């Protein structure tokens, strides 16, 4: 740091007074472009007006990346960058498709409770369709944690849940969460999280499992469950789901939580919606930041893929 003076941080009261919505992301260098697409979709979604305060939590130094991006959001978004000191290098991964960055979600209440009273967390593999719906629900959330249940995950992992003392009742997806930190006890939360992380347990769903355990143990009576439209998981839950037509405008948030729409041979809902937002975002950031991660031009049309598999049987 040398003799450089640190810029004075905006206070909690100033953030609350100036901001319509506090939004938090955990992002590493690899997912920074996806974060930008998500952010673009948020400020261009139905009903957006006002200002956002974005908290970006990352183990990587993204300051140079953000410098250019901030220029385009001067009137809509203010940014705050948080670099957690907790070292997750000792945490074991049960799957190789998730980085340690996801575990920073577990620390978010501890990182933000002195800065804001309430915030919305979003994964980067999301596009926002309706800001108005999100804002209305956000304003009405008074519980410590407001989430959408993931009964599909709970139903298909019953033996794993039982073995690891994870309750399937009320099990939620951690890709979209609203935290009300006015009813937050940092000391008990910190102790619980440290205890779980110190156990070196293997978690199939990483931060999501930990958050479910902590929420059940400390805040069981202070969790609210939101409608599916706030966190619609785009996976096909049954073979018949492939033939059910859904409209994106029925949902406020589309969450591509399993297969990713920017990879080849994506199978799931709302591929065209993601392609559209990606194309718009790429043009929007042009000249300031390069968006170039889309690789799914070779996607197999889902009906063709299904018919092909049926023929092989």
How would you describe the overall organization of this protein?
The strands form 2 sheets. The chain has a 7-stranded mixed β-sheet. The protein has 2 domains: 12-227, Spore Coat Polysaccharide Biosynthesis Protein SpsA, Chain A; 233-312, no CATH class. The chain has 313 residues and is of the alpha/beta class. The relative contact order is 0.14. The protein is built from 11 helices and 10 strands.
Highlighted features:
11 helices; 313 residues; disordered C terminus; seven-stranded mixed β-sheet; 2 domains; globular; disordered N terminus; Spore Coat Polysaccharide Biosynthesis Protein SpsA, Chain A; alpha/beta
Strand content: 15-25%
State the separation between the terminal residues, measured CA to CA.
64 Å
Overall number of domains:
2
Count of helix runs:
11
Name of the top-level CATH class of the largest domain = Alpha Beta
In the CATH classification, which architecture of the largest domain applies? Alpha-Beta Complex
Given the C-alpha coordinates, what overall shape results?
A: globular
In short:
Helices cover 34% and strands 15% of the residues. The chain has 313 residues and is of the alpha/beta class.
Give the SSE layout.
Blueprint: H1 12-18, E1 21-26, H2 32-43, E2 52-57, H3 63-70, E3 77-82, H4 108-112, E4 118-122, E5 126-128, H5 131-140, E6 145-149, H6 151-155, H7 158-163, E7 172-180, H8 186-198, H9 206-219, E8 223-225, E9 232-233, E10 253-255, H10 271-284, H11 302-312
């Amino acid at each position: 740091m040398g003799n450089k003076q640190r810029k004075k941080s905006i206070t909690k009261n100033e953030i609350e007074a100036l901001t319509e919505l506090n939004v938090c992301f955990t992002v590493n260098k690899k997912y920074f472009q996806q974060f930008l697409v998500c952010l673009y979709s948020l400020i261009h979604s139905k009903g957006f007006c006002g200002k956002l305060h974005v908290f970006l939590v990352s183990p990587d130094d993204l300051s140079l990346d953000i410098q250019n991006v901030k220029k385009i959001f001067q009137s809509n978004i203010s940014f705050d960058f948080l670099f957690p000191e907790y070292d997750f290098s000792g945490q074991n991964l049960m799957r190789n498709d998730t980085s340690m960055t996801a575990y920073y979600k577990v620390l978010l209440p501890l990182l933000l409770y002195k800065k804001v009273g309430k915030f919305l967390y979003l994964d980067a593999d999301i596009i926002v369709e309706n800001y108005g719906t999100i804002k209305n629900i956000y304003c009405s959330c008074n519980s410590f944690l407001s989430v959408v249940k993931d009964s599909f995950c709970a139903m298909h992992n019953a033996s794993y849940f039982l073995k690891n003392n994870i309750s399937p009742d009320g099990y939620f997806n951690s890709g979209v969460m609203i935290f009300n930190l006015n009813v937050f006890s940092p000391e008990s939360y910190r102790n619980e999280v440290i205890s779980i992380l110190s156990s070196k347990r293997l978690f199939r769903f990483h931060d999501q499992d930990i958050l479910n355990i902590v929420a059940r143990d400390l805040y069981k009576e202070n969790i609210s469950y939101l409608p599916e439209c706030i966190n619609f998981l785009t996976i096909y839950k049954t073979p018949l789901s492939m033939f059910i037509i859904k409209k994106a405008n029925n949902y406020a948030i589309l969450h591509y939580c399993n297969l990713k729409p920017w990879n080849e041979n994506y199978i799931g809902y709302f591929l065209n919606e993601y392609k559209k937002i990606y194309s718009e975002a790429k043009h929007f950031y042009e000249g300031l930041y390069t968006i170039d991660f889309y690789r799914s031009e070779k996607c197999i049309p889902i009906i063709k893929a299904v018919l092909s598999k049926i023929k092989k049987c």
